[in-house]
Amino acid sequence: MSTLITKPACEIIYPSSDGEPLGETEIHFFVILSLVETLSAWFSKNPMIHVAGDLMLYHEEGNPYKFVSPDVQVTFGIPKLPKRTVYLVWKEGKSPDFVIEVSSKSTSRNDLGGKLELYRDVLHVQEYFIFDPLEEYLDPSFVGYTLVEGEYQLIKPLDGRLPSKVMGLHLQRDGQQLRLYDPFGKKYLLSASEVRQAQDELEARLQQASEQAEQARKQAEEREERLRQEIEALRRQLPN
After folding, report:
1. Is there a contact between 154 and 178 (Cβ–Cβ < 8 Å)?
2. Can you name the CATH fold of 26-189?
3. How large is the average pLDDT for residues 65-69?
4. How many angstroms from the chain centroid is the CA of residue 21?
5. CA-to-CA distance for 192 and 65, rounded, in angstroms?
6. Stretch 203-207: mean pLDDT
7. Does residue 141 surpass a pLDDT of 60?
8. Tens-digit pLDDT profile for residues 74-96
9. Which of 32, 167, 179, 209 is the most buried (most CB within 10 A)?
10. Predicted local confidence at residue 181, as pLDDT
11. Shortest CA distance to 39 belongs to which of 115, 110, 99?
12. Where do the structural domains in the chain lie, given as residue ranges?
């Protein structure tokens, strides 16, 4: 009797890169990097908020050609860890809640067309922001949309900033960068570079204080030694 041998189904590979660089220019790259680092630090204590940058996102199971790689994405309600090589919507159980595309003239048609439609109609991303750091085509150069009954509506500025209800933060253009503002604490979030600079300054002040304390200790010891010597000299002058 012959035995029928069935071949296992081919495993579908979902690549972790589309071959495109992170950011159109160095300016775009550092905008994305700063946003990812700042948001990661802000949400670091919540294990159920996932922040990613340029992560390949696949939205149709079994089809490795249906993907997008948002410049910045934030998803609430999924575990932060383990770190992902790709984002599979059907595996995560949901799409990102918040997306930012750091746009340029060469990507403008896709950012305002195909990606906007995908985020709105397929992924149902609650908030979608587009930032044109070089002010090449977008006027105003920073816009945000919120999903209302299946349609994107422009987010109205508040005190010169665009509020994100999803994240509880405001976003504001600052030169060629984006700043994040905490409306409850009434303060801007420090970027990773600003945190490192503050740490360096603190360490420098602590080192200076330590050196001053050591110098004061040595001076006190020298004064004590001089007094001891003076007392000893006086004792020698007294009659036996």
Report:
1. no
2. tt1808, chain A (3.90.1570)
3. 96
4. 18
5. 34
6. 61
7. yes
8. 999 999 999 999 999 999 999 99
9. 32
10. 97
11. 99
12. 26-189, 192-240
